[in-house]
């Protein structure tokens, strides 16, 4: 697993020689061997044989392995719903999977310092995993970050760079910085770490698969990881069918939904508006095109939801399931409801019914 | 598992006939059959065969199964330290194990409403698990609860009773209330749920055991659960030795430490002072005597730590391990450091060294 490849044009490079493909698209690791593991390591490290680094010391060793929960009171439109509770990661978000792997890999490659561009979950997650493994960490945050959130990040002791203006462009600039191994949302390491959530979901149903996976989408990195896992599992013969992937975004900032709706192969940057789901409000998603490819390849779709719908979903998740989630997570449930209303995943209902009658389930 | 028994005088009663033993001590379920399970249910429900109810719907199904993490940068005094990250429960605390089981049992017994007396983690946890399983929930909180914390609890939609004055006595009064199945800190169901953390720890090391388990202690309910698991595992021949149990409390409110230090068999209520570890500041712990019995029986100990030591531990856990924990959790690490300073667990160091040389580890 020392080669990275472009999902689109197929060019390959030695890792970590390049950050992006010559064609401009993000890279991911070449497929390794995938198998359902016998090992019982904690969390995502059960799949260590399919990952480019071994578990790090400290909190990163606790990433992944989150529960897949049936919450029948949240079933809607005839769908038998399972929730993957990624809040049960060590710093409370799915980002820990990628951060843990990035830190583990940096450590194995003799790198002293990792970094990230984030003002939220990814900053906390990267700083925490670095602290546990004894790596230095640099976090670039916008100058106007709320003090409370800054305090959460600062607790792990990273170097914090407050960046005035042009925060959106910092992603590109970070790729050029020397001396820091930046692990932003769509780097091959982060995508490799985050694909483990789909290993876990698919293994729980194997060899059957869920009919659809609906997730909130920002940069497109997480969706890329899920797609990659599905491609790997299919190639290895571990699953027979592909779950359809559905991207859900807040209406105020939904460049991927717009591009998908217009049947484009490229996401154009938009002027994003304000939304309570600020942590997924990415007006120029670096893995946007790859996200579109994932939706097309799995015969999935994309949907936008209003802040009111997000608030209603958040409330329902707490009152009917016992799940307290941030607005950006509730976007997935709001998206599912919208897709059902529109009849876009009516077919799923039938398939779920069929699955419900399996005697082994 | 329909009989509850007094750990002290041995009297037994049909569950749920009595809340406390005639002698005044808390009760726990009679030992069931314990075995390392083959099943792979999520979290604590792996041990469902040793529990008095099956997994509930919703968030309670995701309780337990938390990672046991090596964080070598936190090793101190020659001790090889493992951290059990109970923050990775669905509502962020170990309380979910007991809440989930209590809700599951209430549901199986046809009860409509559960309740708890708490102004923090236990209130959130009980309300969340009840919501997921479709039960009503009543939460008694002190009238002066901070609004922010109240909002966290209210999100799950419980009935909230704000109680003026005498909050400390509400525990006893709640035992008499009709129509609500109160699952406070030391009820048999909560103790049964919370014992699963010790199943998980011991299974990870089996058939060896950790030399010591240091934990923060408030009511004594969690310590009781851990002790009970150890007794069960010993009786079943699954572990050969007992880990020593150490209770750590904040100096400002340490009735169990005082009683242990004075070699008393009963905990006397004290005038507790202010501490940043407010969520474990219990001046009159309902399972205090049982906690003392657990410490004695396992040849363990008890230690108090200052707020400064707690703050320093909190900082170290974040910066050296990547763990962000509330003050009351940091009390465990501060306690370990103090026990090492005092030479009280010097013997453990040697045992850990021995364990380190096992070729199978």
From TrEMBL, chains A, B:
Q: Which residues form the Tryptophan synthase beta chain-like PALP domain?
A: 62-346
Which keywords label this protein? Lyase, Pyridoxal phosphate
- Per the record, a Pfam family? PALP
Look up the EC number in the record and give it. 4.2.3.1
Q: Tell me one GO molecular function of this protein.
A: threonine synthase activity
Output the superkingdom of the source species: Archaea
Set out the biological process GO terms recorded for this chain's protein.
isoleucine biosynthetic process; L-serine catabolic process; L-threonine catabolic process; threonine biosynthetic process
Report the residues modified as N6-(pyridoxal phosphate)lysine: 95
The answer to whether the entry has keyword Lipid biosynthesis is: no
Names of the cofactor(s): pyridoxal 5'-phosphate
Entries under Gene3D superfamilies matching the protein: 3.40.50.1100
Q: Does the keyword Lyase apply?
A: yes
UniProt lists the family membership as follows:
Belongs to the threonine synthase family.
Query: What is the name listed in the Swiss-Prot or TrEMBL entry for this protein?
Result: Threonine synthase
Source species: Halalkalicoccus jeotgali (strain DSM 18796 / CECT 7217 / JCM 14584 / KCTC 4019 / B3)
